[in-house]
Structure of Kynureninase:
Amino acid sequence: MTTQHDCLALDAADPLAALRGQFSLPAGITYLDGNSLGARPKAALRRAHDVLEAEWGDGLICSWNTAGWYDLPSRLGDKLAPLVGAGKGEVVITDSTSVNLFKALAAAIKLQANHPERAQRRTIVTERDSFPTDIYMAQGIIEWLDRGYTLQLLDSWDQLPAALHDDVAVVMLTHVNYRTGRMFDMPAVTAQAHEAGALMIWDLAHSAGAVEVDLRAAQADFAVGCTYKYLNGGPGAPAFIWVPERHQADFSQPLSGWWAHRQPFAMQASFVPAAGIRRAMCGTQPIASLALIECGLDVFDLVTMAALRRKSLALSDLFIALVEEHCGAHGLELVTPLAHAERGSHVSFSHRHGYAVMQSLIAHGVIGDYREPHVMRFGFTPLYTSYSEVWGAVQTLKRILDEGDYQIDAARGAVT
Ligand SMILES: Cc1ncc(COP(=O)(O)O)c(C=O)c1O
Ligand SMILES: Nc1ccccc1C(=O)C[C@H](N)C(=O)O
């Protein structure tokens, strides 16, 4: 049985505790939603000021050269790369995750279509429980291509081996599931896909900055992910795309805007792709937002992913144990796997009044979120979450459930 005193002792002994000082968090709030929108690094305020005042205000258009705006997507991509096991020149920060998925899918489909033995393959495999944008983007590309491609949706992760038949061109999976927090074994699944002659795309939205990822060791084909979750890049900050060096020469994507051109300012009338990772770009990037991502990435220089993962698992183990001990009588069901190797950095419990309970938690200063059907999600961000906050969050949850202090017909906001 863990006590509040034990949690305070864990905080006192926590080697990462000081990292919270890097973030601006409102007093009295326990923030368990860094899996959806990371907290603001304190440095981002100053950076935003500099970008707007000095770089935009004073530097004007010259800042594309003098303030490094032109190189920012690839320079920051190089900074992010080690967090996901990517090499230098293999990552660019640009566009949204959805748009990057489109590019990665298009490139993978084309690589297969040009392969002598795989050109006839027409199936794209993903999970029915994928974050919906992944499914929608695949459906969009299939419809637009109109060449007989079909989407095969797995109803559970263990259907994958049986689904890997000889018509599968591409497997596209989210490494850590947005709702359940379940994590795939990336090297094993990538190897299975390859064995079946398919290419493997990973969505790292809930992995980058949350769990250890080694894309190159897994020999994955392409990956995309968000910077506004665990990387703390800011609301709607541009996403990233990884194209390993071995695929770059053959990486072709149809959003061939001028920023993907070999010489954007040569103003030629025909498209020639850039030699390296910049061919994964499209057009001009939102510099004010992109620049702030660096503040989030800088924090990762102070810590290793191994240390973050250790604390993340300790926080989530503690949360699961305390919820089961203190709130066990209230019909909460753990939807996240218990095995460490099978989960990411968030924990989900379902409850038949999950939305209402979450709204009450938020009203009482514990911010998580809700996903249909019935799932309350709690994200653990070891950079700024403490063990005693986990204790406090569970006590708040217990009180709300014990007292029935939630409104079943709570009005819903557009974002849940
Ligand atoms: C797995 C996954 N993919 C993609 C996205 C989002 O994509 P976008 O930033 O394009 O909205 C999310 C969350 O929003 C997600 O959880
Ligand atoms: N981009 C957002 C905008 C508004 C509200 C939430 C999001 C999310 O990122 C949700 C997240 N992908 C999820 O796993 O549910």
In short: Residues 36, 131, 178, 205, 371, 415 surround KYN (ligand 2) (CB under 6 Å).
